[in-house]
Amino acid sequence: MAFLQSTQYGAQLVSTNVWDPSNIYASNIDPELKEILVFMYQNLNRMAQVINVKETGQYNDSFATLNNQQWFANPANNSTTMATAAQRNVFRTVVYFPKGLPDAGPSSLPHYITCTSETTFTRIYGVASDTTGFLYIPLPFVDVTGTNPVQVDVDATNVNITTITDLRKYNIAYIVVEYLLS
Fold it and tell me: Measured between alpha carbons, how far is 129 from 100 in angstroms, rounded to an integer?
């Protein structure tokens, strides 16, 4: 039995019965030791359940990561659908813009997510850095005058950053996208 399901996409600790406690009770060991073993198993299961709902702090730019966020069951599922109502896992990927923000216009890079009617984006956010002037702005962004907005959006193929003024001094940008697949 695997205690840890780990791949490049994240990790989940198994929180279902790995062994049958009735086997412990049926064994020829001290009754107090039996109780200790069952108690330890129950505590390991509780720890796995807590760990599995902690958000994973991995931000990868070459593949999606299961980040352990969970969203409510798909509202499209009902008594007439075959799918079982279950929490939905959230995936995260980072799109790195090595040239940063564009000069008054759009810049696009592929996100490599296979978008279908089941794909729902839950968060799109990022940061742009001016590594020489040590300036940093959140993305999307609107300055206090409202004259330098930066729009960030996602389509079926790309992450898009659009500016209305020259913001090339922000020479690095990261956009994080998080999404559901059902």
Answer: 8
For residue 1, pLDDT over 50 is answered with no
* Confidence (pLDDT) at 161: 97
Q: Are 159 and 94 in contact (CB under 8 A)?
A: no
Q: Are strands 120-130 and 106-110 parallel, antiparallel or unpaired?
A: unpaired
Q: How many CB atoms lie within 10 A of CB 158?
A: 16
Backbone torsion region of residue 51, taken as left when φ is above 0, otherwise alpha when ψ lies between -120 and 50, otherwise beta: alpha
Tell which wins on pLDDT, 57 or 7: 57
Gyration radius of the chain over CA positions: 23
CA 166 to chain centre: 32
pTM score, whole prediction: 0.74
Q: Which two tokens stand for residue 158?
A: 């790309």
- Please state, in angstroms and rounded to a whole number, the distance separating the CA atoms of residues 89 and 87: 7
Which of 95, 11, 84, 23 is closest to 59 using CA atoms? 95
pLDDT at 2 over 50: no
CA angle 114, 111, 83 (to 5 degrees): 30
SS3 letters for 50-108? HHHCCCCCCCCCCCCEEEEEEECCCCCCCCCCCCCCCCEEEEEEEEEECCCCCECCEEE
